[in-house]
TrEMBL record:
GO-annotated cellular components: cytosol
Cofactors: Mg(2+)
Keywords linked to the UniProt accession: Cytoplasm, Glycosyltransferase, Magnesium, Metal-binding, Nucleotide-binding, Purine salvage, Transferase
UniProt similarity note: Belongs to the purine/pyrimidine phosphoribosyltransferase family.
Protein name: Hypoxanthine phosphoribosyltransferase
Organism of origin: Candidatus Thermofonsia Clade 3 bacterium
């Protein structure tokens, strides 16, 4: 954000609605698609015990809902990767692992759960790192894909929604750490990007 206090002033005046241009994906659409993804993952991993690796923090809400719809026995672990500064269009730095897995992935079927794939650099970095640890398989499940911003190819096995090049928040995605708790995904007004 060019002026963080402007954002905080808007939040104080009207909460998230002061920043919301429009709802892009409703709560009902999210619930339906997450259930469909869970069913497909359950089918694909039948007879296996996948390790769901969630990238913190944005993927937590998606992971929690997705797990409810996966009937295959599974394990969960978390990673945190830092690559962005503050603001909707902050410059990208070299991805850096700030929290690594506690689980050895060698020989495991790993499903990386991510909230949004934008340029692709962060997820590509994580995939390359995990591949060196010799998993039996390594796939990506992304809630959102923003192909217009892609700079690096990312193989997405399970996708919730493809979205246009707009800055979004809600359902785990933050607006400068605010509003991850919203049950829908909304587009941020241009003046707050």
């Amino acid at each position: 954000m060019a002026n963080l206090s402007r954002l905080e002033d808007a939040i104080a005046r009207g909460g998230y609605s002061a920043l919301l241009d429009r709802v892009l994906i409703t709560e009902e659409q999210l619930n339906r698609r997450v259930a469909e993804l869970g069913a497909q993952i359950s089918q694909d991993y039948a007879g296996k015990t996948p390790l769901l690796v969630c990238l913190l923090r944005g993927g937590v809400m998606f992971l929690a809902d997705l797990m409810k719809h996966i009937s295959a026995p599974h394990h969960v672990d978390f990673m945190a990767v830092s690559s962005y500064g503050v603001g909707a269009r902050a410059t990208r730095g070299q991805p850096r692992i700030t929290l690594d897995l506690n689980t050895d992935v060698r020989g495991r079927h790993v499903l990386l759960v991510e909230d949004i794939i934008d340029s692709g650099h962060t997820i590509d970095h994580v995939l390359r790192l995990l591949q060196t640890r010799e998993p039996a398989s390594l796939r990506v499940c992304a809630l959102l894909n923003k192909p217009a911003r892609r700079e690096v190819y990312v193989p997405i096995s399970y996708l919730g929604f493809e979205i246009p090049d707009e800055f979004v928040f809600g359902y785990g995605l933050d607006l400068d750490e605010y509003f991850r708790n919203l049950p829908f995904i909304g587009v941020v007004k241009k003046e707050y990007q």
